[in-house]
Amino acid sequence: MNDQYASVRYVVDDVPAAIDFYTTHFGFTVRMSAGPAFADVVRGPLRLLLSGPASSGARATPADAAEAGRNRIHFEVADLDAEIARLTDAGLAFRTEVVSGPGGRQILVADPAGNLVELFEPAAR
Fold first, then answer.
1. Which among 16, 76, 78, 94 has the fewest CB atoms less than 10 Å away?
2. What is the pTM of this model?
3. 3-class SS at 88?
4. What's the total number of domains in the chain?
5. Cβ-based neighbours of 87, under 8 Å, separated by 6 or more
6. Tens digit of pLDDT for each residue in 59-116?
7. Which segments constitute the VOC domain (predicted)?
């Protein structure tokens, strides 16, 4: 087992589009890319496995769980409004409005396959 990374697999429709989304907008770097089938990208301790339709990871997914779901990557940010402005300027559309609660504020954006990414600004302590 590799303790260097926490790995998450996202099944995506278009691996190159997903690579572009995560590297351009969220600072991931490509560890490995196998054409349209698969890519391995990292950001700090997070290893994101991007599995296209031809990958073994996607083929192992049951049909009733094939669509992007309610799970999401959670990124803590220091200034949510600045991140929203940066991503809006880059042409990304958000899936929700900002939601505020006792723990902080959050907003969701989707990758090209519909997998959710949460941007979260903790409340001042």
1. 78
2. 0.80
3. helix
4. 1
5. 25, 94, 109
6. 666 676 666 666 789 899 999 999 999 999 999 999 999 998 888 899 999 999 988 8
7. 4-122
